[in-house]
Amino acid sequence: MSNNEIELICIICPIGCSIKVYKVLDNIKIEGALCPRGVNYARQEILDPKRIVMSVVKVKNGDLPVVSVKTDVPIPKKCINEIMRLTALIEVEAPIKIGQVIVKDVCGANLIATREVKKNS
Ligand code: SF4
Prior knowledge:
2 helices; alpha+beta; five-stranded mixed sheet
């Protein structure tokens, strides 16, 4: 494999096509995808990879010390460290509902709670 050749496994469906991407200057050639969805996936992965990010945030006065959170849409991979730093710094007050927005508009996404935390009685 040369520096300009990248191999990916398509994660869009269970077939898991092995895709090769050849990059020469600004041109991209994609081989191995059985359908256009795989071509789009490979192009996105090479030009602007994105991920759903999951983490935890500290909770004040809750029946649990932390709440699990995730971005509501995939964010650029280059923003993952920013999200992880942010989640390490903040603390939210219980009660927290599933789907509650914990941080609004960060890296093009909202950070939402993925579980409930009740207020400490
Ligand atoms: S390229 Fe198409 S057929 Fe192949 S794994 Fe991706 S989505 Fe499935």
